[in-house]
Amino acid sequence: MPGTPYLPSKPRSTPSSDELRARIPGWGADLDPKDRPSYPRERFDPGATGAHWEFPERQEEKWPRERSIEHEFLTPVFGTSTPPRGLSGALRKYAYATYSEGRAAHWLILMGADRVDAIESHLRSFATLRPDNPITETGVLSEFSRGGLSSRVGRKRVDMSHTWIDPILVAGPWVLAGVVLLRLGRRVSSARG
Amino acid sequence: MKAMVYRGPYKVRVEEKDIPRIEHPNDAIVRVTLAAICGSDLHLYHGMMPDTRVGMTFGHEFIGVVEEVGPSVQNLKRGDRVMVPFNVYCGSCYFCARGLYSNCHNVNPNATAVGGIYGYSHTCGGYDGGQSEFVRVPFADVGPSIIPDWLEDEDALLMTDALSTGYFGAQLGDISEGDTVIVFGAGPVGQYAAKSSWLMGAGRVIVIDHLEYRLEKARTFAHAETYNFAEYDDIVVEMKKQTDYLGADVVIDAVGAEADGNFTQHVTSAKFKLQGGSPVALNWGIDAVRKGGTISVVGAYGPMFSAVKFGDAMNKGLTLRMNQCPVKRQWPRLLEHIRNGYLKPNDIVTHRIPLEHIAEGYHIFSSKLDECIKPVIVPSAS
User: Which among A138, A164, A166 is the top mutation candidate for probing chain B, defined by the most B β-carbons within 10 Å of its own β-carbon?
Assistant: First the structure.
């Protein structure tokens, strides 16, 4: 005789509620949806939040703050971390000013700007007393102190199939930049010689 | 002050930055006493979230002590020990007035599709986060709460996101008495979602991952049945077998954008950023849930498109429920559960790392070294 779902009965493999109540601390404490704080999903209660304004005072805009064109105006409060600068900043401002969030171009340009930002920032760091250091900044030395090998070998981790890509993604651009600089240096010295 | 600073994909360091200032009358400046690295911080760390700027300080899970308040702040004062929800929200817009704090419309100029989140890229508002010694907290009368004296720091810290999100994920599943719940992902949110499913009367809770040490934690911490998907040719077929070929009533996706289990999906999203996220767990969930069942998504995905099996979801008549967690809504009930001994949030904390060593912390968590489940960051000033 077939069982569920070919028949109307529930699955046979579920323990009884009494058994679960005895075994699991707090089982069923929120059985009644009314005890669940996100039920119902929307509950109109503007007095519950602690806000003592209908519309918040506006934060001062100290530079032209980039914003989604799906907003009617600049939100009254906003983050002020890392203002846009350089080529990456120009790309970001263009993406916000030109494309809505519904357009792939908006996000693709922002992602491209992130890559440009990383390059700009690495280059900029070389003009400071604290240039970027891919060894310390990747934390890769913890591979030796926190069981890099034992955390992976014999563990059936499926992420091992693509872990090899990470060093290429991280170190690849640095190696490439080194090769380019080396070749440029050789060309310059041979042109002078 | 010392602060974690993003230096490009897979690279962070600690830098000296200016202590944040009051920029709005309802701001507070909080001295951070504990912070955490969230699994979703790894999406930023891996360069997956658009408009993640070099120089930004991450960290949306933190607690601390109020250092300074703006002139309109009424509910907090200097010296208060506070926990801060990961949501930045105004408390008064259309969405906040209806309890959708994570969808606030007054705090994120960069995007209308997502609210404000501390230290989570400009796509989420451009706010510096709490993996630092000090942080600016907007709308101090709305978001933060004074930590009850009886609540331990680490438990309070975990309420700011991971615990609340897991609990919220179980609620999104609309669990009825006796339901079979499958949780994909045995990270912190998955552990809490599994544990919370029992509170809502689940009959079976099954957790799926490929990291055996995390599955062991799901067995002991969350009383769950566990399956390592790496041991099965097709985990969906195994789930059908385990549910008498019905499928689960509810599936919770607690994995999000970097889901593993399909090389192409993972690499195209996590490595080459061609999708908003790898929908492997979500697609397995769509297949493993029963017809008419519910999928709850609390794993984080980027704003770009992802290759989700939407046709199957439609044909099966599924209900897909999802959101960023409105954290503060969860707190009164969660505090009751902690006080009653039903939940002990910091049982999942595995690493306590000084802020100065945060680069190692990110690498350990990202590479799943040393059986890491939840790393906590300790700023030196605390």
Answer: A138
Q: What is the CATH number of the domain that holds B277?
A: 3.40.50.720
Amino acid, res. B29 = I
Q: Give pLDDT, residue A120.
A: 96
The whole-number average pLDDT for the span A5-34 is 93
Domain containing residue B340:
2-161+326-378
**How many distinct structural domains can be found in chain B?**
2
From chain A residues 145-174, the ones with a CB under 8 A of any chain B CB are 145-148, 151, 155-159, 161-163, 165-166, 169-170
ipTM here? 0.96
Residue B29 and residue B368 in contact, taking contact as beta carbons nearer than 8 Å: no
Q: Which of residues 20-49 of A touch B (CB under 8 A)?
A: 20, 23-31, 33, 35-39, 41-46, 48-49
- How many domains, chain A? 1
Q: Are both B284 and B331 inside the same structural domain?
A: no
pLDDT reported for residue B381:
55
Least confident range from A43-47, A162-166, B51-55: namely A162-166
Dist. CA B285–CA B295, nearest whole Å: 7
Q: How far is CA B3 from CA A55, A79, B128, B378, in A?
A: 32, 16, 10, 11
Mean pLDDT of B237-260: 96
